[in-house]
Amino acid sequence: MVGNPYRLPGRVANVDSQGRPDNRTAYGVFAVQAIESNGTMISYNDDLGMTGKVQDICLENDIVRAFDPECECQLASDHLSYGLSKSVQDQILDHVISRF
């Protein structure tokens, strides 16, 4: 997964653009909306995340994926740049190939 707007912090599958554990405490923007409105949260099972079959990749400046209500300076444009990131493309390819 890349740019998951339903990101929940503290999950094993959360990684940054280099494949390192992403320990940020920020929630995805849709997760924030779902929590505030007591709405439906789309997610994957924690057990699936523990298997290594899922990687939830987040660019460091993606405010859709890791919403920061304290920052007024960020633009959502970083959310659109996953396809331009060689490290993310390589990480996805390596992850998919390792499953065969």
UniProtKB/TrEMBL annotation:
<dbReference type="InterPro" id="IPR029058">
    <property type="entry name" value="AB_hydrolase_fold"/>
</dbReference>
<protein>
    <submittedName>
        <fullName>Uncharacterized protein</fullName>
    </submittedName>
</protein>
<comment type="pathway">
    <text>Mycotoxin biosynthesis.</text>
</comment>
